[in-house]
Amino acid sequence: MPLPPESLIKMYRAMLRIRRFEEQIWEVYTSGLMHGLAHLYIGEEAVAVGVCSALRDDDFITSTHRGHGHCVAKGGNLEAMMAEVMGRVTGHCRGKGGSMHIADMSVGILGANGIVGGGFGIATGAALSAKQRGTDQVAVCFFGDGASNQGIFFEVMNFAAIWNLPVIYVCENNHYGEYTPTGNVTAGKSIADRSKPFGIPSTTVDGSDAIAVHEATAEAVARARKGEGATLIECDTYRHKGHHVGDPGEDYRPQEERDAWMARDPIQILRQKLMDDNLASEAELDGEVREVEKEMENALEAAKAASYPEVSEVNQHVYA
Amino acid sequence: MSTPEKEMTFGEAVKEAIAEEIRRDPTVFLMGEDVGKAGTVFKVLTGLHDEFGDDRIIDTPIAEAGLVGLGVGAALTGSRPIVDVMFGDFITLAMDQIVNQAAKLRYMSGGQATVPITIRTTMGAGRSSAAQHSQSLHAWLAHIPGLKVVIPSTPADAKGLFKSAVRDDNPVVIFEDKMMYALKGMVPEDDYTIPFGQADIKREGDDVTLIATSSMVHVALEAANALADQGISAEVVDPRTIVPLDGETLIESVVKTTRAVIIDEGHKSFGITGEIASLVYNGAFDYIDAPIVRLGAMDVPVPFSKPLEDATIPTAENVIKAVQEMKIR
What is the value of ipTM here, to two decimals? Predict the structure, then answer.
């Protein structure tokens, strides 16, 4: 069933939000307002938005170190996210998590994770819990090509298969595990193939095409809600920036490769589609851009104005 | 005490606690290797699967990282799982899930996340099971903020503490000494819990305090009996939970007796006994009449051969000798 125009425009806006959020992070980071690590999602927006547009608010996701995009797409609050990465008390996690640990339980964001593959157990457990509690919620585990070599990936696929759990494993294959080409350290033809021995259906989609990602996810969600079990979706994607702010991402990735991927910018692809199908005019889409810029500017200003946590909070939230 | 009591083994007490909690709360379930019809390799849970079925007593693959990881995810999203890790040695396979995930999710999320998971596992040498099935690794977990660590020594304590663990909103790891499963004791018949962080004085005395955990409580009690024959009155104090630790009761006892021996089956170095000794020195410094003695497992992997294995575990003789060297009388 084709997506209605308003859904596509919503997806376009969500992708713009992620892009602008990350561009602001770059600015904030390089101007010294943010500390620590920042792994930018620019170039991969179609994956987070394609997936999360097929989910409900009460569905769960686990995210990764490159997680801002997932959190924006799942409904994280932009102000609270910006404040969190800047270590402010108004952040989602009161400044205790930072960029790599943004969580918003109210919209099912079970947390970004600093451990590569750290979401596998949590997402599969959330799916188990949904089954135990008799709901039709589903859980999505975002992970990278690097995490596909962690042993627990195979453990959880086995659990998901034997118990028919409503979990969707979404691999963002951006072709580099940090600085190492995925192919150099990853056996087999595709990561999607890795679920086959478990009887878990899998598919590979163009991770620059938000609609394709959405359709693959919607199918997986429908199966999961009906009690038909897990799915693995491998999204072919690319990060426009380096591994983190501070890595230009150039010396280990060939120029032609980077140029080819930049030319297939996921936001441009959806924008072109909306215009080609006469679903939105250029002026309308430009209006979206301006609105998102304004929204993000407000979020940034609010975060900048927010306080750091009182030091007295340091030993709060260790125990419930 | 007017509460009626019945005699049961340590293993039966654990089973009864689990059964009562599963009956009480529909979000509680237990999963682990061989927990179903097999009733665990130690046969401690025999019969639970018959009562609760596949949905509440769940056999899992031998995959400890995944097993504990699923437990963490389920706990985060409205369930209250009990995860059974057969041997304490195997928690090493799940350390990322316990240390980086379960222990930190609440803190990292600024208090949003709640992770009410109970991990039950075993400890203790003495079964000729060699180095990978005999370790007592509770100190590892006690080192990690965000976890609670429970280490019961009697059937009554095991039941009351286990029920508190299941009801606790934090990740709790409960270490059961597998050598104690057949140990008998009186257990209250009513629905009781034992709060964490309350040490229990297992025997009152005036001359020396024996602070002991898990099966070492029984070693200490045996030593206290023998010392009584020599005219030395030993007090035996069991912390019952390592995190939170009831330092106050331990210190009060040493202030009274002025001497202490600390006995724990974890390795002596960098372990529980060192932590407690430091706490007691600081809290009772002006009252202490003899250097505090620490007795732990020898700092070697647990050997297989019986005479070698026996040599690694603290005994009542070790405790008696340590007290005699304090020259109380």
Answer: 0.96
